[in-house]
Recover the amino acids of this structure.
């Protein structure tokens, strides 16, 4: 097993609260194991264009509580090409980097898997996405904070909904997954939660709103994941307005506030633990895996699996939410 003396770390894809806590933990763990840590700026773009910054304890001082990522993040089409990855490999060799830790979502891990295999570089991934849609961990870094952000926003929206007897349709992030919608919907007592994993039947939706009209209770919250098969909040608005002109409807699309802000305590602790375990794992010869936490145990899952399988949503929880909602 080759000795690892220098690890490169990058953040890629959408930024998430907790990425900084992970970077900090990687640097501190590097110090502990006598391994140099180098930061790669702007994800795979920085790997191709040699944007490196040395990371010591001072560089990660006072960042555990900060949202975003000090390394910056980017999407990089060039890395999807063999030529782009060949250039990245030259940069890796030039900088004497022995292994990589990649913090990002399934796109990032796909790129990491290809690169690691093509050029025989040990790669470990950390699940960094607010969507919580990676197989191999109960929670991804940033998900808990994003849910809390949605809950804070919806609580405020509900004050207005109630005062004005309005129905608010709130769209949250989740192009392919309804984790944010389901959890925040339960936490805010949403009357209805629409997620991509469960088909939304227009008639069911309309039927459930009929009760509100009958009981003269037309305030409420519908939470819609952006990837729901209705087509999102604006489409749901049309469907409801067509049938029930009496509902005073407002749409609120929460957008990028869900990505930002200080990470929750949960995300800080998760990111710290996973960051440490990634460095430790590399010293023990682990590679081509993502480090996650399942039932509070650290688990290394092959990158192939994390990319190939969908993280299952709790269908039972969705059924319970239906009962509790209306
Ligand atoms: P998020 O969950 O926030 O979308 P992500 O990591 O899935 O995060 P992507 O934009 O899908 O975000 O991917 C990030 C980067 O990973 C891409 O810009 C690209 O550089 C690299 N990447 C994605 N897919 C591939 C692929 N098939 N081959 C090589 N590299 C890829």
């Amino acid at each position: 097993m080759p000795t690892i003396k220098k690890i490169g770390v990058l953040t890629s894809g959408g930024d998430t609260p907790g990425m900084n806590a992970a970077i900090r933990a990687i640097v501190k763990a590097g110090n502990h194991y006598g391994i140099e840590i180098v930061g790669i700026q702007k994800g795979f773009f920085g790997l191709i264009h040699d944007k490196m910054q040395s990371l010591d304890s001072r560089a990660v001082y006072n960042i555990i509580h900060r949202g975003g990522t000090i390394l910056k993040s980017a999407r990089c089409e060039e890395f999807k090409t063999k030529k782009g990855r060949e250039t990245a490999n030259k940069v890796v060799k030039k900088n004497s980097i022995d292994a990589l830790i990649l913090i990002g979502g399934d796109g990032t891990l796909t790129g990491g898997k290809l690169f690691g295999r093509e050029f025989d570089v040990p790669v470990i991934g950390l699940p960094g996405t607010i969507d919580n849609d990676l197989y191999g961990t109960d929670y991804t870094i940033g998900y808990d904070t994003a849910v809390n952000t949605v809950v804070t926003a919806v609580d405020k929206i509900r004050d207005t909904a109630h005062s004005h007897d309005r129905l608010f349709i709130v769209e949250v992030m989740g192009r392919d997954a309804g984790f944010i919608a389901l959890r925040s919907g339960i936490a805010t007592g949403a009357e209805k939660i629409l997620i991509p994993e469960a088909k939304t039947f227009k008639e069911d939706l309309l039927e459930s709103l009929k009760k509100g009209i009958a009981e003269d209770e037309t305030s409420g919250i519908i939470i819609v994941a952006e990837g729901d098969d209705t087509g999102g909040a604006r489409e749901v608005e049309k469907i409801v307005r067509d049938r029930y002109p009496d509902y005073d409807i407002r749409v609120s699309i929460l957008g990028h506030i869900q990505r930002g802000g200080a990470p929750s305590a949960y995300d800080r602790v998760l990111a710290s633990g996973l960051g440490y375990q990634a460095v430790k794992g590399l010293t023990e010869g682990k590679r081509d895996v993502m480090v996650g936490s399942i039932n509070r145990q650290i688990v290394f899952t092959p990158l192939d699996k994390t990319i190939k399988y969908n993280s299952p949503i709790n269908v039972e929880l969705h059924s319970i939410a239906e009962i509790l909602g209306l």
